[in-house]
Amino acid sequence: MHFLPQETPIVELPAGATWFRVQRIKAISGSVRKRGFILPPAGILAARFDLPDGITAYLADSEPTALYETVFRREATSCTLLQLTERQLVVFTNAKALRLADLRGQEEKYPALHSLRYPVTQDLARRYRVSALDGILFTSAQHATHRCICIFESGIAKMRRGAQIPLVQPGTTRLHRHVLDAAYRSQVPIVDTGDI
After folding, report:
1. DSSP 3-state assignment of 18?
2. Are 87 and 27 contacting, i.e. CB atoms less than 8 angstroms apart?
3. Rounded to two decimals, what is the model's pTM?
4. Phi and psi of 122, rounded to 5°?
5. In whole angstroms, what is the distance from residue 70 CA to residue 18 CA?
6. How high is the pLDDT of residue 110?
7. Which among 27, 176, 184, 185 is least surrounded, fewest beta carbons within 10 Å?
8. H or E segment and range at residue 125
9. CB atoms within 10 A of CB 75
10. What is the distance between the alpha carbons of residues 111 and 177, in angstroms, rounded to a whole number?
11. Using one digit for the tens of pLDDT, what is the confidence trace for 35-48?
């Protein structure tokens, strides 16, 4: 897939849009903390639009989409209570407009956009960043018709963190309602670590 960044529509997302992200409550060794984000180190190349020499943050247009994209992915066979206890749902708002490559609707023409062949899409992300874009707007591969964004460091700098909601009520095993709903709809069982 070698369509060029200039062939893709560029959209400007006005300030004030709300986005959701599931991330760790506490950073682990090597994590990058920036503007309320807890991110993997640059160069990990573990996700669709990761960069070899920069950080990226993925966000979704709704709470369920954020959960489907991170915890209840279609390839998941289970999720542990411990995984959920260590994570939170974080609300972010872009304080300034974001310039994004708009890949929505391109999945039919370029199935690699939703494949697990990440080097192709990672190269695309690298070319978009070089084109001075803040990130990429794309259709969720996990939750049909919903939108996600992957933002580069310039996009991260324009974000403001809002509410931070634990996925499990602290000191209990009570799950957030969106977690219960996503687990039920995805049919991904939540198991206690003692059950494994």
Report:
1. strand
2. no
3. 0.93
4. -65, -35
5. 18
6. 83
7. 184
8. helix 118-130
9. 7
10. 33
11. 999 999 999 999 99
